[in-house]
Design goal:
Elements: H1 10-21, H2 25-44, E1 53-54, E2 65-73, E3 77-86, E4 91-100, H3 103-106, H4 110-127, E5 136-142, E6 146-150, E7 153-156, H5 173-183, E8 189-195, H6 197-208, E9 212-218, E10 222-229, E11 244-248, H7 261-268, H8 277-282, H9 284-300, H10 321-329, H11 337-344, H12 352-384, E12 392-397, H13 399-403, H14 407-419, E13 426-430, H15 434-450
Parallel strand pairs: 2-5, 5-8, 9-12, 12-13
Antiparallel strand pairs: 1-11, 2-3, 3-4, 6-7, 9-10, 10-11
Helix pairs in contact: 2-12, 4-5, 6-15, 7-9, 9-10, 9-12, 10-12, 12-14
Length: 451
């Protein structure tokens, strides 16, 4: 449990929470300076909490044309998509198949897992009657930590999300995929690119909107990417200084943030202690847990849910970000979904005061997350365009941005606070399916670059 302050009264404790979760404009400006320092270090090859990983691909020009295949592996479901690009900025999914991945394939061997992937591709080709006389360029969205060494090569660093298949860590996943395709006698597919879902988000939006130069994920996890001048990527030598390349920032690992005792407790209980601090303060995987730690502390202090023998929130994971979203939407003093949720946890004698306290705590945690997200976006935009003289579209995907009440609005308000009237040059939009459409566009860009 978070270390206790000597404060015991409700008003004093509420003021304490307001203080430790508050993000001021001054805090945002400090965040931006620290972001720029870490970006510079990451680009020059010095140790940094921002990895600044080259993606080996630039933004599309919107004229890419043709039919491309995309694979999307990032959880317990696997997708195969066919995407048609019309050369005028429009990308249409012409076919999609979803497959559930068995635990045996997730936790078996490399041959099992990539054999499953090849089987899914074969089934997709047959069901959609693809012309096997044509060679289709394919991009593989592989949403796991990868050391990417060129546009179509990358070694898995470590499995996450429940995957443990042996013989994959340390291996080039594109080599494994090509071997599986060969065993299955699939010759009409050429793996043109290894894709990251964040890069896909940027590419998908920028295909139809050339002003899109920042792609962000705000969902279960968080990350961002942007196009960087090759001359600034000093850890690489011998590159054309006139060119650009999309940089995968891995900004979830940014560590120059002020932590509360609740953040520290969450970090100590996590499997990756000492890492991913921004992600732990911003993403959907963790916001519910931060809120649970605060509520648990208040229960122990006798400040909420009085009259109930309350052990509902003692267990890690017993309050989720989706529960916070439910609380944020509840405006009724009568029996509602929030009260139903609390009663399902065994909490009785719920008062309007209890519900208001819970709603306020959810608001504190989610508002801090939105402001840090907005400040991080402002940091990257001001790195690219210090005076913010040009138009910038920020394409954001993820359930937190899309569904959490008020989250998108607070991000935009933070950018307005930072840039003032110049914030009119920023358009923040929902950019869906970067792991699908975006991957196909990356395949097109890679194929064109090769030519």
């Amino acid at each position: 449990m978070a270390s206790a302050s000597p404060i015991i009264g409700f008003d004093e404790f509420a003021a304490y929470l307001n203080k430790i979760f508050k993000i001021t404009l001054s805090d945002i400006k400090i965040l931006i300076r620290e972001f720029h320092t870490e970006m510079q270090k990451g680009l020059t090859g010095y140790e940094s909490s921002l990895k600044m990983i080259p993606s080996y691909v630039d933004r599309p020009n919107g004229k890419e044309k043709g039919q491309y295949i995309a694979l999307d592996l990032g959880g317990t479901n696997f997708r195969v998509l066919s995407v048609e690009l019309d050369g005028r900025g429009n990308a249409s999914v012409t076919a999609v198949s979803k497959f559930a991945i068995d635990i045996a394939d997730m936790q078996g061997t490399a041959e099992q897992l990539f054999g499953f992937i090849a089987n899914c591709i074969h089934q997709f080709i047959e069901e959609n009657q693809l012309d096997k006389r044509i060679q289709y360029d394919l991009a593989f969205t592989f949403s796991f930590p990868v050391d990417q060494t060129n546009i179509a090569a990358g070694k898995l660093l470590v499995w996450t999300k429940g995957f443990t298949a042996k013989g994959v860590e340390g291996e080039d996943v594109i080599v494994l995929l090509n071997e599986a395709l060969k065993k299955k006698d699939i010759h009409c597919i050429r793996v043109a690119a290894l894709a990251n879902d964040t890069v896909g988000t940027l590419v998908a939006r920028s295909y139809k909107d050339p002003s899109c130069d920042l792609g962000v994920i705000l969902g279960t996890g968080t990350n961002a990417c942007y196009p960087e001048k090759l001359v600034n990527i000093q850890k690489w030598r011998g590159l054309d200084p006139k060119g650009h390349m999309i940089i995968n920032m891995e900004w979830g690992n940014f560590n120059k943030l002020r932590l509360t005792n609740y953040d520290k407790d969450l970090d100590l209980a996590s499997p990756n202690t000492g890492a991913q601090f921004l992600e732990k303060m911003v993403s959907g995987m963790y916001l519910g847990e931060i809120t649970r730690l605060v509520v648990q502390d208040m229960i122990h202090r006798g400040l909420i849910f009085l009259g109930s023998k309350c052990t509902a929130f003692e267990k890690k994971g017993s309050l989720l970000t989706e529960n916070m979203s439910l609380v944020a939407e509840d405006n009724s003093a009568n029996l509602g979904e929030v009260e139903f949720f609390l009663k399902s946890k065994g909490i009785t004698n719920i008062t309007a005061h209890d519900k208001n306290i819970l709603k306020h705590v959810c608001d504190l945690v989610s508002t801090r997350a939105a402001k840090i997200s907005g400040g991080s976006i402002a940091a990257v935009l001001s790195w690219m365009d210090p005076e913010l003289k040009n138009k910038h579209t920020v394409g954001i995907d993820g359930s937190l941005f899309e569904k959490y009440p008020g989250f998108a609005r607070k991000i935009k308000a933070t950018c307005k606070d930072v840039f003032g009237e110049n914030a009119l040059n920023i358009e923040i939009v929902h950019a869906k399916d970067g792991s699908g459409k975006g991957a196909a566009i990356i395949a097109a860009v890679a194929a064109q670059s090769e030519k």
